[in-house]
Every structure is written in structure tokens, then in C-alpha cells.
Amino acid sequence: MNKKWMGASILASSLLVVSACGSDSGGESSSEGSGSGSEEDVNLIAATQLDSESAFAAGFEKFKEVVEEESDGSVSVEVHTNGDLGGNEDELVQNLETGSVDLVAAAPGFMAQSVEEVDFFSMPYLFESRDHWESAIDGEVGQSLEEEIEGNTNFEVLGYWSAGVRNYYGSEPIETPEDLEGKSLRTQDSPVVTNTWEALGAQPTSVAWDEMYQALQNGVVDSAENDFTNIYLASHHEVADHISQTEHDFTTRLFFTSSDIFDGLSESQQEAVMTAAEEATKAERETDRELAEESRATMEEEGVEINEVDKQPFIEQTESVREDAAENLGLVEEYEKVLDLKEE
């Protein structure tokens, strides 16, 4: 599904939720077919576990602004932040499935059990820059993964959002893969991520995000990995004051909804959603870049040491992780396309 069609389809699922829960007519409008729904007012609930200053919140606010303007108010959006409607991504996705939330941004990994191909996004050193990430994710590679997701779940992908560039951090800096030998490191729950850090000599450990500050402070884990913004917002730099720029993951997040809503929207509402989805994605990515720069500067002012790392040894030591993942996921062609884009 291209970006415009994705933008339209995301809101389809919200209307069914609204129709089923708040209208005497139930799901009548959804049975009329795509684009043939009557021009009824639709209210959508967008929710994130992050705070109101986050990039996700900026994306949702832009979506709200544009869709309400383009639809002349027939589509309205409520934006909920700070975990008001779900304190973590799993809970938000569950709420999306049950209909209490309509729009969500979350890591691809939550759907890995039903669509293992999404672990493609977790490959280490898959992308070498933000520009490289965008050229792949907004092109054929992103399109292919969208089709896998939408063909195997009840979700519709609205856009690819960013969650920064992930780096190593702990009480001591690292410069080479050898420095990771034997260190416990909190990671995301992903086979590819686990294989990555094991290949580098670390001991991947599972710790809930809201328990990480105490885990770092008490030495339950030696280190972790995340982007500048999340490290700063979670205050982890207070207890892990060394960040090593491994830049191993240009992070992808999905902006999506359930796949049952689009047919209930009128054609003009669909057009409004298409436009809003594109503008929201631009706003989220730009805010993500700005917040990363601001967070880094603030942490350095507060005494955090940030060291550059020669990434080549890390890239070479994880090459087999990328190659094995591409083969096991059946995405060798997509992997080769990403490599080709590096050379352009």
C-alpha cells in the first residue's frame, strides 16, 4: 500500500470503533464499501506512552491539525500522552485492538510473533545515516514490509516514524567490541537484537523500561542502549554517565491503526486523512531530530561524557547477524536493496 492509501486506510478502523460503540446504526456505514460512507462526524483517539513534548506527540498533533482542517471538522482527533491510555506499547496495541484507542505509534517488534519479517528493522548497522534510512523506508523496502504487515495482521500502516539513533551507554565508555565482553546489557525483546549483542560479546538482559533507572543505579545491569532523547527523558544519564556512539540502529517505529475503518469514511474524509498522514510523518521525524540534538547538548552540559567509536569493527563483527537474519526472514532481496542504496 502506498503512503497515500495507507493514510486513508488507517482511519477506517477508527470509524468502525466509533460506529460500533457510539452510534445506533452500528457498523452500517462500513458495509457500504470503500469511500461510500456518509459524511458523519468521526472522533479518533490517538495515544502514546511518551510525554507531550515527544516526537510522537508532535506527529499526532500535526495529524489532528491537518485532518480537522482538511475535513472541515468532520474528522476530529483527541491526543492522549504520558501513558494516559496505556503505559507501554503492548498495552496501547491491545487497546487499539479492543477499540479504546484508534491511532498508535509503536515498535515493530510487538507484532514479531505474527509477522516475523518485522525483525528486519532490528538488524544492526543496516542503515548508515538518517538519509539512508529514509531512502530505504520510504521506498521499495518499506513498501515490501508494509505488505507483509498488512497481509498478516489486522493492522494498517500509516507511516514510518523515527525513534532516534541508538547508542551504548553505561558507567564506563566502550571503544571496541572487546570492551563489551561479559557486560550485561539491557536490550529490546528481539531475536535479532539478542544475536547482535551476543556476537559483540555482551550478555543481553531483559529489564522493563520503567525499572531501568534503578537497575542501572543498583548494578543489576551494567549498561543499556537507546537514543539520546530517551536516555535523557528517562534520566538514565544520572546513573550511567558515559554514552558511546555505536550508532548501531537507526530506529523505525510504525504509525498505524486497525484495518477495519477506512470503508466507513467518505471520500473527502479519506483525502483529509491521506494528507494528514503525510504531514504527521514529516513533523514526527523533524521533531525527533531536533529533540536528539537538544537532549545531547543538555546531557553534555550536565557532565555526561560522549565518545565517538570506530564503528567498522562493530559492523564487521555483526555481519553474520545481518546475513543470517535476512536469509531466515526471507528478505535477502530487501537486504540487498538496502545495501545498494548505501552506494548511491
TrEMBL record:
Domain of life where this protein originates: Bacteria
Amino acid composition bias (Low complexity), ranges on this chain: 23-33
PANTHER family from the UniProt entry: C4-DICARBOXYLATE-BINDING PROTEIN DCTB, PTHR33376
Family as reported in the entry's similarity comment: Belongs to the bacterial solute-binding protein 7 family.
One Pfam family from the record: DctP
Source taxonomy: Bacteria, Bacillati, Bacillota, Bacilli, Bacillales
Gene3D superfamilies: Bacterial extracellular solute-binding protein, family 7
Disordered: annotated span: 23-43, 279-303
Basic and acidic residues bias locations: 279-299
Organism: Salibacterium salarium
UniProt protein name: TRAP transporter substrate-binding protein
Annotated signal peptide: 1-22
GO CC, any one term: outer membrane-bounded periplasmic space
Gene Ontology terms: biological process: transmembrane transport
Alphabetized CDD domains for the sequence: PBP2_TRAP_Siap_TeaA_like (cd13603)
Keywords linked to the UniProt accession: Signal, Transport
NCBIfam families attached to this UniProt entry: dctP, TRAP_S1
